[in-house]
Design a protein that fits this description.
- The structure is a homodimer of 236-residue chains.
- The first copy, chain A, is an alpha/beta fold and 236 residues long.
- Helix content of chain A is 34%, strand content 21%.
- Chain A has 7 helices and 10 strands.
- The longest helix of chain A has 20 residues.
- The termini of chain A are far apart.
- The interface between A and B is large, with 54 and 54 residues.
């Protein structure tokens, strides 16, 4: 018996509100407090918008958490502790908190930091994760592209401008998903060109959402300005 | 305007029936024909059992598809064509067919073969994929284990007894998911031992289902008999 609430990490999927699971829907309905990340004060998160579609007219406490976007370690430390204490407050009153995240809570998500720090500061809090459809599976579905089959291997890699490293991962795996390609699209195109893989690549942003965009002629993206959450799939 | 039905590849998730998406649920309800893989005549598939939980009392045509389990190319070819023609039959009558798969339809799933061969034999059929929670995200949620964060990379690899290849992928990535480890558990344990990663590995079978089993002391698994769909997560 515990008088402390449970913290749920709830994946709400890649963008299409129908790609939420039955379990995520139930946990959102049952949790008296809904927490969601926001980039800066006043902005509405993508995950929050999906969740709200299922919560309209429901009386809930809402916790909008502003995550630190700095590399200054002192500020980071202080701001992260502030976030954890904000979530701890309703938990300490025995209320369950559902923290919503885009995609899956354990794959490149802010929930990972929250979970780690909550374990550290308030180890008595029970934490449960409700998995979500990641953007990777969302993209594959929209492209009708098999990610891996049989004895093939798949790698998921944040894109960088390290030419040799990007080349190596493409040589090692049948399929590679490069995350956050926007800032390094030109170096990425040079790697694809060198390996003669330009026609095996697709670039996708906000897959499955109403703002989805898909580029299949990736060589046209030279010097293009792409949204932050853009990814590239290369299938050899 | 087409008089031909649509073929849906519907991921029903890793095992917990609540981990089906709202979209998968709707597509199953709306499709007059439900197709599912079965290993041999008479056996019931895992995916089919999950789907049936949502379909009870509904009047549907059911197509149980026996997939060829041989390496003989002539038999494979003939049997696969038989499967495709079985699915084509209701499609040709204008009926939508929902083919249910465990996990995600585009990640190591029999749907990949069905899709490829349908494209080849009946290119006029529209194919749509409803992504599902893969066992990988299911396992992470049950272990409370972050798969990757920040600039970390993740690899998904069918396990083999190729010591050097398994070692290399573990050296190259922060996290590796090895699929189908049952047949090669002893060689896999030797790789982990050599890299001093035994305490960073977990072995899981049927994650999120009522038959789930989790082993965190993997060194105890030497010479163990494990179920076919067992996977191993190694997080450095």
């Amino acid at each position: 018996m515990s008088d402390i609430g449970t913290l749920y990490g709830v994946g709400v999927g890649p963008g299409d509100p129908e790609l939420i699971t039955v379990k995520a829907f139930r946990v959102l309905k049952e949790s008296p407090v809904i927490a969601y990340p926001k980039k800066r004060k006043g902005s509405k998160s993508y995950a929050h918008a999906i969740a709200e579609g299922y919560l309209h007219e429901q009386e809930k406490e809402r916790l909008g958490l502003v995550f630190p976007m700095t590399k200054d370690r002192d500020i980071l430390e202080r701001e992260w502790h502030r976030v954890v204490e904000t979530v701890w407050e309703p938990l300490s009153r025995g209320k369950d908190v559902a923290f919503v995240t885009e995609g899956d809570p354990l794959l490149y998500s802010t929930f990972i930091h929250l979970m780690r720090l909550m374990n550290q500061c308030h180890p008595e809090v029970e934490i449960q994760v409700v998995p979500g459809i990641s953007s990777i599976n969302g993209v594959a579905a929209r492209l009708g592209l098999p990610l891996a089959d049989g004895d093939e291997t798949l790698a998921i890699v944040p894109a960088t401008d390290d030419h040799e490293q990007m080349k190596k991962v493409l040589q090692d795996h049948a399929c590679v998903i490069f995350l956050k390609v926007a800032k390094v699209i030109d170096p990425m195109l040079r790697v694809l060109e060198e390996l003669d893989l330009l026609d095996r690549a697709s670039v996708v942003t906000k897959a499955t959402s109403s703002e989805e965009r898909i580029w299949k002629e990736v060589s046209e993206l030279k010097r293009a300005e792409l949204p932050y959450l853009t990814l590239m799939v290369v299938r050899k």
